[in-house]
Structures are given as structure tokens and as C-alpha cells.
């Protein structure tokens, strides 16, 4: 999500193409882009699939580079020279023989969907410095994934550079899979919601484009307000079927494979024992967030510690971090928590997102396309005061990307945000009383019952008993979650290779880093016995996919229902 300020997308394409020698005979098994919620587990799955003697390379997304300055790897959208590159963190895995390679660029779910569905598809561009491993640019080992987690073949450390044949195979290769934490129908819906004109009656349009029919091709950029961050989200149109909106080329038929279920976790900076850390581990501390409290905090009605039941009494202002509306994390949280019902606290209706009116985007009026107001109190970067209550007002601010969100909460006392769970996502703030997580409506997202609220760490393999991870997600009592998925071709080699990777991820999940509930039963785990009901979304009719029919339609915020011998709705309310 961090972009170059020095080269246009067209110049980047030309520069990298010139730098790269001809490709060698290496098969790209899977080239993915998308959600950070599955980034680490996909790498470890690919490593297990690659077999004995496999190698791995990781690089962060923002280091001064020779060509893709300041990024080491980006997605290049071939459909228009006006579409800016999308950077992210990159992992690469290759087998001992150097004949097969897997890779994934962490962006966000909607960008991952766009990268896959764009026709022609996005290309991965990798800075030439990743091949040389010299100087100060794109130097590995970055150990963006803990070195102890690369099992069972961990004798090879994170490599300092990419072998020439591996670099040649990846550079300018096209994306074969989109890693996503929302369905493609929901990703298309969310993209159109961003690109449509602002609708303050129900926030069905968020104002980063114009009109009401998703006709804007490239919308207004959305900037981070995390200190020192250069992260920016670029709203760009795409379709998931029919014709591409830029090129009018026919979009290839796709399918979506479920991988696992991950909870949204609300994280807090609790360094101030008179604020969100009151008292840090005591029985009267701020440990819980109700849905109604969450709605009022994130829409700016009240942003102080008196927003919570059991707060310190004397109100302390808080900083409220929210994600960019192109994020799968934002949309999952929006439709499972913030946007439930027509008024705050009334529960989630079953009729789909169009009937909702509350939003974390309430009161945010984006600047006109091409206009910016850096340094000001305003919407871009987001830095808006909440309503003044008890004589004080907290602020609402924007993070772009999971790393940005964690950095925002990390850097600001009495701040609160939300993420898709992942041990790697929270490693910077885990295992310390200075930070923590909250229950949602009294239900713990990670453990059976709430203990200290300290974010657990997993720097080494931390195996979970099959069937034991995330017990309250599995039993349906924790409501804020979504399925992690991979979208790829409906048939052919890409489908075969993605299926093999998904199987490797699920087989590996409980033995290494149990970041989510595996979707399929196997390896002693019963798998996920719930689904979220589907509804009409992006002109795709709903199908819950419980029989031989294909899953279809939107499901973010859908009712939680049982699968198996006792089917039925568990909950449509928070």
C-alpha cells in the first residue's frame, strides 16, 4: 500500500522490464496477492509443500531501492498508466532444485481481488536489487516471518537475495490467485461503495468517486495518518465477471476456495492506567467492548473512556483508528459490528448491507478528486475530532494496512483499533501488559475465557490441539469473523496448484502457527462447522454452497448458521 512518489506506473513498468533478463525455466506454482491475514500461513504452507531443502526469502515493502524507489516489490496494473503501483511485503519460496517457486505480496483483500480479476491481470514487479542483495536496498534476510517458523525444513535461513532464475521467473509474472478475507462479490461491492458519490443518508456511497453506478474508474486516494507512514490506498475499479471496465476484455471464469475462519480482534494501547489501561489487569478494568459502544466510538458520537462500561470515571480522550474502506478487515468489521441495524445497537438484519445506515465513515466528507489537505484537521489524512462529551473529544484517524494499524495503536497511548487475528500481525505488541485486546459483547475472540487480555505471542511453532483453536468462533458465540479464501481460475493448472497450496496450509496450520480455524475437516481437526448466510451482492444471486452447488453471493455480516446434523441460524444479532 506504500507507493512510489518518484515514478509513474508506466515508467516503473518500463524500468523493471529493462532491468530483467529473459526468464529461465522455472515454474511459478502460485503467485498470490492480497490479505495480510493469510500472508504468513500461506508462506509456511508453501514451504511445507516445497519439500526438503526448500529456500525462502522475505522482504519488507518500503526500503530505498534502485528502480522501484522506495519499494522492493509492487503490483503493476496493466490496464492504465494512470493506475499507481501497489506495494507490499513479499515472501518467496522455492524448492531445492530451483524449478518451482511460490510467492505472495501482502496488500489488502480488495487490491488482491482487483489484481486477479483485472484483465489483463496485474504483474508482480520486483526490484533488481533483490537479485544482487548488495548495498542498502532490498537487503534480506528481512526475517519478516520468524526464522523459527520455517518447519519442517528450517535448515536453510532467510536468503540474502533471490537467485537469478527465481527473480526472472517472478519479475513481470502475472498474478494467479487473490488471497482475500471477503468474497469477490463483497470486494466488488466495497470497491463500488468507495467509488460512488457520498450518500450521508445510508453511506451506500463513500464519496471517493462520483455518480451512483460505479462508473468512476480511478477514485480519490485515501491517506494514512499514522506518523511517518507513507501508506496510501488507491481506489480503482474492476469487475468479477463479464467485461473489464478499463479494457472491455472478457474476464476469465473463477472459483473461490475457502481456507479458514479468522476473528476480528479489537486491540488497545493500555499504557495509561488512568485511561484504556485502567487498571491494566484488574476486575474493574476496560476489558470489554459492546457492539453499541463500538458503533458510537467509531462513528464519532463519543470517543473517551466513559464510552465503556466500567471505565475509570474521569473521562480520558481516546484515539480511534479505522482502516481504509477498501480493506477486507474494514468491511468485515463494518458489517459484523459497526453497520449492524438501522440505528446503533439494534442488531444485524438478514437483508444484506444495503439496509444498513450506521458506519465508521459517518461524518467523513472526502476531498474532491485530486484535492488534498495534508496537515489539516480533516478527512484526508483522516484526523477528525469526535463529538465533545464530558468537556473532551477524542479523535478518529486512519490507518492503511494491518501494519499501519498496529503501528498506530503502538505509537499512541489510549488508542484503539482492530485487526484480523494473526500472530505475525501483532508480534510487535504481543506478550506485554502495555497492549491488549478486548472481548466483544463479553465473548473472547481467541480463548475460551478472558484472562489478562495480553496479546499472545508465537515466535516459535506453537502447535494447537486440533479442534481447540478459537473456541468461541467455532461455537458461534463470537460474531466478528470472516472466512479467509483464495480466488483463482475455475479450471486448469492455476486451480490445481492453488488447491495443493490450500491443502498444505490447512495441513500445517495446527502444527506451526494456528492463526485461524481450518475450513476443511482433516488432520484430526473437525474443521469449521459454521457458515455465514449469503445474500444478493454485486448482481450475484445467493447460494450457501452446502450441497453440490457452488457458493455464491455476499456473506460479510450474514447470519451465522450451523452446518451438519443440526443446521439452523445461531445468530443474526450482536
Question: Can you put this structure into words, describing what you see?
Answer:
Helix 2 (about 40-50) crosses helix 11. The strands form five sheets. Strands 1, 2, 5, 6, 9, 12, 14, 15, 16, 17, 18, 20 and 21 form a 13-stranded mixed sheet that branches. The chain has a domain at about 260-475: 3-Layer(aba) Sandwich (D-Maltodextrin-Binding Protein, domain 2), CATH 3.40.190.10. The chain is α+β, with helices and mostly antiparallel strands. The model is unreliable at about 1-25 and about 340-355 (pLDDT under 50). It is globular. Helix content is about 20%, strand content about 20%.
Kindly list the characteristics that best describe this protein:
574 residues; globular; disordered N terminus; D-Maltodextrin-Binding Protein, domain 2; alpha+beta
Secondary structure blueprint with pairings:
Blueprint (H helix, E strand, L loop, with lengths): L8 H11 L7 E8 L4 H12 L4 E5 L13 E4 L9 E2 L1 E6 L5 E7 L2 H9 L5 E4 L2 H4 L31 H7 L2 E2 L2 E4 L3 H12 L26 E2 L8 E2 L20 E16 L18 E2 L1 H8 L20 E5 L4 H11 L44 E3 L9 E5 L2 H10 L3 E6 L14 E3 L1 E2 L30 H4 L6 E9 L3 H16 L8 E2 L11 E3 L27 E3 L5 E4 L3
Parallel strand pairs: 1-6, 1-9, 13-19, 14-16, 14-17
Antiparallel strand pairs: 2-5, 3-4, 3-7, 5-6, 7-8, 9-20, 10-11, 12-17, 12-18, 12-20, 12-21, 15-16, 22-23, 23-24
Helix pairs in contact: 2-11
Residues in helices, as a percent range: 10-25%
CATH topology of one domain: D-Maltodextrin-Binding Protein, domain 2
Structural class: alpha+beta
pLDDT averaged over residues: 88
The CATH superfamily label of one domain reads: Periplasmic binding protein-like II
Summarize the biggest pleated sheet. 13 strands, mixed
β-strand number = 24
Identify the CATH architecture of one domain: 3-Layer(aba) Sandwich
Q: What portion of residues belong to β-strands?
A: 15-25%
Shape: globular
Rg value = 22 Å
Instruction: List the total number of helices.
Output: 11
